[in-house]
């Protein structure tokens, strides 16, 4: 892992983690599904335009098409759709913490569903992750967290884990930017049906809302996805996924800094334990040196 890969990984972690704060600002002032539908439409069209300018083709491999649909529906429509709705009542820091458990869920699914061998370090990482989540959730539940919003976040992160497992091999064969753009358009189409049938357009306009929407559309929406694919191509999925261990800390820190969300001792302890668990799981996947 060279310096460029490290910079790309840190940039991805920051962009990914900041999305919860910008999303929280958006959903307090605009209908969440309608806002997300528009975001995916803009990001998808931009991604396809750039892909065509770079000479990338619409002709994807069967594996890429499958991953494009699964990724678009599970990650974008389900995961982010549920999270946008949930963050009307759930703090951005809690949403970021729940989403950060995705690498742990992927490792757990690999062991339970795909019968992959679980190294001792990975097993300890899973246990640590469960303990960390338990610490945070126990404190939040006693403080009166919205259970409906919490449930939406849990279902959303499961959908994200499914998308992550399904996208294996999607970066092979080129045209990765076209894949990114198309999966966003698929999500926009799916969410548009939900928005039309369930929401009324009422917007509390402000420069903060406009700035947050532009930021979340371009930076986490398109930029983080592109950096992630580039990072996977450069150093591989296992090494790239190591940077996910930063997401709990960054998600909580950014929300506390920008939104002034309270930071409790239990949150700090839980985040540290979850980070250790994610790092242990990812390091256990590294090939041993001869």
Keywords:
single chain, mainly alpha
Distance between the terminal alpha carbons, to the nearest Å?
18 Å
pLDDT averaged over residues: 88
- Counting H and I runs of at least 4 residues, what is the number of helices? 12
- Element order: H for helix, E for strand: HHHHHHHHHHHH
Question: Which class best fits the helix and strand makeup?
Answer: mainly alpha
Shape: globular
**DSSP, total strands:** 0
Low-pLDDT segments, ≥5 res = none
Number of domains: 1
Which value, in Å, is the CA radius of gyration? 18 Å
Q: Can you give the helix content as a percent range?
A: over 70%
Explain this structure to me?
This protein has 290 residues and is mainly alpha-helical. It has one domain. It is 77% helix and 0% strand. The chain has helices at 3-27, 32-53, 62-86, 92-99, 102-112, 120-142, 147-166, 176-198, 207-235, 237-241, 247-259, 265-283. The longest helix has 29 residues, at 207-235. It is globular, with a radius of gyration of 18 Å. 49% of the residues are buried. The mean pLDDT is 88.
